[in-house]
Design brief:
CATH superfamily of the largest domain: Nucleoside Triphosphate Pyrophosphohydrolase
Low-confidence stretches: none
Oligomer: single chain
Number of domains: 2
Mean pLDDT: 94
CATH topology of the largest domain: Nucleoside Triphosphate Pyrophosphohydrolase
Radius of gyration: 18 Å
Structural class: alpha+beta
Shape: elongated
Number of strands: 10
Order of helices and strands: EEEEEEEHEEEHH
């Protein structure tokens, strides 16, 4: 058995503002010729901003897919030519109004690799200093500074339901 599919052809199905969709023809690892739908996404960077010793910056942000406001860590889509760390450094300033001088990689993971190329790159951002936020037109959010223990309680109580935020926060708490 081959370890990966052999690519035969691709048809572009949809082009959107943050992802594209394609239909691929492949030879599957078991030798079968199959059609596979795939969401092409450049990936995202998420960060756990540490303010002082015991406080984390979280966002309350409206999310269309959820139809409501969610608690999240800052995050953003990686632009063409941008590294995950460059994206994180750009996004923290845009969304929170803080710059970080210390960065540490926490983890990377696929969101849904059965049909999606998106990778989440998680970082901690510390040694923060104030800067100027510059939100995009679709970003409706509030910046909140919350004690670490309260963030843990929010997770236990189900108040934080955003997957990328949970991955980043669990990775951060594991490394404490």
């Amino acid at each position: 058995m081959r370890k990966k599919a052999k690519f035969l052809s691709r048809k572009n199905v949809y082009k959107g503002y943050c992802f594209d969709a394609v239909e691929d023809q492949v030879i599957w690892p078991n030798g079968e010729e199959l059609s596979r739908s795939l969401i092409m996404h450049p990936g995202i960077s998420v960060m756990v901003p540490i303010l002082e010793v015991n406080r984390i910056i979280l966002l309350k942000q409206y999310r269309y897919g959820a139809g409501r406001v969610l608690w999240e860590v800052p995050a953003g889509t990686i632009s063409p030519g941008e590294t995950p760390l460059q994206c994180a450094k750009r996004e923290i300033v845009e969304e929170t109004g803080f710059k970080a001088s210390r960065w540490k990689k926490l983890a990377s993971c696929y969101t849904s690799p059965g049909y999606n190329t998106e990778v989440i790159h998680c970082f901690t951002a510390s040694q923060l200093c104030e800067s100027q936020a510059s939100l995009e037109e679709d970003e409706v959010l509030e910046v909140e500074v919350i004690a670490v223990q309260e963030v843990k309680n929010m997770i236990k109580e189900g108040k934080i339901q955003d997957a990328k935020s949970l991955v980043a926060l669990f990775s951060y708490f594991r490394k404490l």
